[in-house]
Every structure is written in C-alpha cells, then in structure tokens.
Amino acid sequence: MDTLDLISNNFTGSVPSDIGRNMTKLWDLLMAENSLTGVIPPSIGNMSSLVNLMLDRNQFSGKIPAELGQHPQLEFVVLWGNQLTGKEFSGFVPGNILSKLEQLYLLENNLAGALRD
C-alpha cells in the first residue's frame, strides 16, 4: 500500500502506537480532519518511505515526536490545528535531517519558544 487516506471522517480515539511497524513502504499517511486524540506515535518514524504526513485538524496533544526528523524522504508535513506543545525549536537543523522537506505547517497549536535570527 502506498497511501492511507482517512481524511475528513469521524474517527475518534488515539492512533495505534505501533502504526508504523508494518507500513515501511507507505508514502502518504493522511489522517486530517477527524477527532483523533493522544500523542502522535513515535513509531511513525519507522515509515522510512513516508513523503506526505497530514495529521491536521485533530486533537493531538504532547510533543512532536523527534522521530519525524529522521525521515529522509519527508517533503510535506501538516500538523496545524492540534494541541501540540513544546519549545524544542532552537538552533540549526543539520542538512542531512529533513533534507527534502518543502512545506511544514505548525500553526494553531500550543508551541512556544524564542525565534532566532
């Protein structure tokens, strides 16, 4: 399977913690516009072929998993409109991390911290 598209349904509850275990060839994980809760599972880091991740307009909370930064193919990340927290956005991002990332949407969350020059 290349794409899992569950956008704009009425799904509730949390995403299974092992969602990334057997989906290493998945390109698109699209779960936007539902009522999903809990944390974004770190096992998404196992999806080594992931290009597009859309988890916007849900009710995810907690921090953005560091494992998302290990995706060599990730181009499009949409996490806006959740209840994500954290302030670990400082310093430079090494060029080998998220080197293909083109778009990152984090608006309408509860992120904090200082923006640097």
TrEMBL record:
Compartment list: Membrane
PANTHER family: INACTIVE LEUCINE-RICH REPEAT RECEPTOR KINASE XIAO-RELATED (PTHR27000:SF642), LEUCINE-RICH REPEAT RECEPTOR-LIKE PROTEIN KINASE FAMILY PROTEIN-RELATED (PTHR27000)
UniProt keyword list: Glycoprotein, Leucine-rich repeat, Membrane, Receptor, Repeat, Signal, Transmembrane, Transmembrane helix
InterPro entries in the record: Leu-rich_rpt, LRR_dom_sf
Cellular component terms (Gene Ontology): membrane
Segments passing through the bilayer: none
Stored SUPFAM superfamilies: L domain-like
Subcellular location, principal: membrane
Keyword Translocase recorded: no
Membrane topology listed for this record: Single-pass type I membrane protein
Protein name (database record): OLC1v1023772C1
Entries under Pfam families matching the protein: LRR_1
